[in-house]
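Hi C.,

You asked whether I'd gotten around to modeling the 94-residue construct. I have! Everything is below, sequence then structure, no commentary in between.
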Amino acid sequence: MTKKEEVALKVFHEICKNWEVSEEDKDRLFGDQLDFDRISNLMTIYRYLHTILPSPVRANAWPRKPNKSFNGKSALEAMQDDPERVRKYLEKHL
C-alpha cells in the first residue's frame, strides 16, 4: 500500500468515527475497492458540513438524519450509492 493510500484510509476511518458509522455501513460506504474519488467526495462532504454547520456535533450528526432531498433517506445512505450527489447538494448550501 502506498503512503497516499494509507493516508486516504486513515482519513476515511476518522470521518467514519466522527459520523459514528457502523462497521456494516462503513463497508457499504467504502465500496469494494480503494476508490480515491469516493474518499475525496467524503472528505469534501465532511469539510462542507463543518463549514455550513458551525457546531461539530450538528455537523457530524447530519449524515445520519433523514433528509427529504434524498427521498427520506439519510445522507449516509445516499452516500453509499452516490457520494457525489450529496457533495453537490451541500455545495448549493455554501
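If it helps when you're writing up: The two ends are 35 Å apart (CA to CA).

Thanks,
B.
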